[in-house]
Write a structure and sequence with these properties.
With 620 residues, the chain is of the alpha+beta class. The protein has 21 helices and 22 strands. The radius of gyration is 26 Å and the shape is globular.
Length: 620
């Protein structure tokens, strides 16, 4: 019934979709197996992509030839560039999306991807022999063979849904859990553990009084995520802001004795940076209110997502608490919020390629590795799909460094440090964030993807033209001079010091209150010289000039750090023989098996003296 595939991807969430697309686009015969074809790329929680650091990841996925950025742009109902008041290293794009359109566009793109087949069934086990994975076994009893398998099971592995005192098996509301895989992997020697996540109630937007809330419109210009010419929406939908209050908190507290979290019915650890509303009012009891974002779920639906109100309290408590929120007095609830508990496998059991250490040809991506968030899952899926293909072709895996991409930071954190709670990406996790900006993801990564065969010729040509354009703009800015009489009147208007002699435009641009687009309006000769360049290229040149000193300093730091990254530790290195290492250091080094001294230095519990000892033993 089934041919043998190069790559099988299990699960069609954000990780699975990117993995399947990457493997197929690279030329592997790929099978995507999902329990429900109608929920491909389902936005299980909030209908949004991007945000702080997550927006950078989506742009990196796009630069590498993934689909998430394109699908996001095609389904955007509101776009905002967050942190504009800070430096460009902190700017993060975020889109509110049409939930149904997002799923439909993903499915459409996958169905139009060559080399990709689909099958609807649950995968209950793997075909494993002599430490190698050769395919999957489905719930219907079918064996589908492949050279590589990528598991992207999300929250479905032995998932349990909790609402108050009720609980039942499920990977999402109204969808059954996946069983069998955890038990088999544990029998093969894998460690597993439990995590928890949650989602807010969904409500009827027609029952809300928006006049009592603060409107939050989108940006005037929709910049989007994809570096391609993907169409952007001409209009946008507003979101709204409201707040909890003491009455809301008092109502919620009446359900604490029936809370699955407080009653100990949930063993899994929840996401630290996205706590439930009951956790917030318990941990931050001194706060009189908490902000809530009222977010529409699409263009043509009245369904509303209440961002900030994740809960697993009993339905009647949720409903009464919602009615006490300003603007929600007559609220109608479509469905309650709930918590979900699921299995994951500590990611220290993986190689940097996301292939498991115990079983060859088996890759993990997404929440199975302990992460939370669509973006974190999608980038892992992309990398696992690429590397599953590479493995079938006996080619070297693609491994991104911490200095090359947020994706590299995420995977290095997971492999090196593991995680005891759902891992979420932040800009603060990246030590080289001045280099890893959202605006230059294409300049950083497209060439890597093009060499692999994933990024198209058109994408590569676009990057070459952008680089050339940036250099041309910088040349103009370095060579063009401005007389005092051309600029001083404007300086007075913006409360900036006037100049007394001719000055290069480049130097003027270094002033914090001066932006290139404004300068072009003030200086007609500059607008004439640069008028043919698009906004994206102009912005890139401006950032490179304004932040040149910081960028160069970070490059120097990367160069120094890379010395440790180049010192390879043999896979067979025996840490037990180094008696000068502490017991903790020997234990952790032996467990993680770092590939380089750089990785070893980032393991929690390994101190600089341990690294020095390793260098001595390696003859360095």
């Amino acid at each position: 019934m089934f041919q043998e595939y190069d790559v099988i991807v299990v699960g069609a969430g954000h990780a699975g979709c990117e993995a399947a697309a990457a493997a197929a686009n690279l030329g592997s015969k790929t099978m995507l197996v999902t329990m429900n074809m109608q929920t491909i790329a389902q936005m299980s929680c909030n209908p949004a992509m991007g945000g702080i650091a997550k927006g950078q990841i989506v742009r990196e996925i796009d630069a590498l030839g993934g689909y998430s950025g394109i699908v996001t742009d095609l389904s955007t109902i509101q776009f905002r560039m967050l942190n504009r008041s800070k430096g460009p290293a902190m700017w993060s794009p975020r889109a509110q999306n049409d939930r149904m359109l997002f799923h439909l566009k993903w499915r459409e793109m996958l169905e139009n991807t060559p080399n990709l087949d689909f099958y609807q069934d649950m995968v209950k086990g793997l075909i494993v022999k002599d430490g190698k994975c050769y395919g999957v076994i489905t719930g219907m009893g079918h064996e589908i063979r492949a050279k590589s398998v990528v598991l992207t099971n999300g929250t479905f592995l032995n998932g349990i849904v909790h609402i108050g005192e009720k609980n039942f098996g499920g990977g999402r509301m109204a969808e059954k859990a996946a069983t069998g895989i955890t038990e088999q992997l544990v029998s093969l020697g894998f460690e597993s553990d439990r995590l928890k996540t949650g989602t807010p109630p969904r409500i009827d937007g027609r029952s809300l009084d928006y006049s009592k809330m603060e409107e939050q419109p989108g940006d005037d210009e929709v910049l989007g995520f994809s570096f391609t010419n993907t169409p952007k929406p001409k209009t946008q939908r507003s979101c709204w802001i409201t707040y909890t209050n003491q009455q809301v908190h008092d109502v919620l507290k009446t359900g604490f004795d029936r809370s699955p979290m407080f009653a100990g019915r949930i063993d899994g650890v929840g996401p630290r940076y996205c706590p439930s509303i009951e956790d917030k009012i318990n941990r931050f009891s001194e706060r009189e209110r908490h902000q809530l974002f009222v977010e529409p779920e699409g263009w043509n639906t009245v369904e509303i997502y209440i961002n900030g109100f994740s809960t697993s309290l009993p339905e009647e408590v949720q409903y009464e608490a919602l009615r006490s929120i300003k603007g929600f007095e007559n609220v109608k609830m479509f469905r309650p919020g709930y918590a979900i508990e699921y299995d994951f496998f500590p990611p220290t059991q993986l190689h940097y390629s996301l292939e498991t250490r115990l079983i060859d040809n088996l890759f993990f991506a997404g929440q199975i590795n302990g992460t939370t968030g669509y973006e974190e899952a999608a980038c892992q899926g992309l990398m696992a799909g690429i590397n599953a293909h590479q493995k079938t072709k006996n080619e070297a895996p693609l491994i991104l460094k911490r200095s090359e991409a947020y994706i590299g930071v995420l995977i290095d954190d997971l492999i090196t440090k593991g995680t005891q709670e759902p891992y979420r990406m932040f800009t603060s996790r990246a030590e080289f964030r001045t280099l890893l900006r959202q605006d230059n993801a294409d300049l950083r990564l497209t060439e890597i993807s093009y060499r692999l065969g994933l990024a198209s010729e058109e994408r590569m040509q676009r990057v070459i033209e952008k680089k050339s354009g940036v250099e041309s703009i910088k040349k103009v800015l370095k060579e063009m001079s401005v007389e005092p009489n051309e600029i001083n009147e404007w300086f007075n208007q913006i409360n900036s010091s006037p100049i007394s002699e001719k000055q290069r435009v480049e130097k003027i641009l270094l002033r914090p209150s001066v932006e290139l687009n404004e300068l072009m309006e003030v200086l007609p000769k500059l607008k004439t010289a640069l008028g043919s360049f698009d906004r994206e290229t102009l912005e890139q040149a401006s950032i490179q000039i304004k932040y040149d000193v910081y960028i160069e300093k970070e490059k120097e730091l990367v160069a120094r750090m890379s010395q440790l990254e180049e010192l390879i530790i043999p896979e067979s290195f025996d840490y037990k023989k180094i008696v000068s290492l502490s017991n903790e250091a020997r234990e952790k080094l032996n467990k993680v098996r770092p590939g380089t001294l750089g990785q070893a230095s980032r393991i929690s519990g390994i101190n600089p003296s341990d690294v020095q000892i390793l260098m001595v033993y390696m003859g360095r």
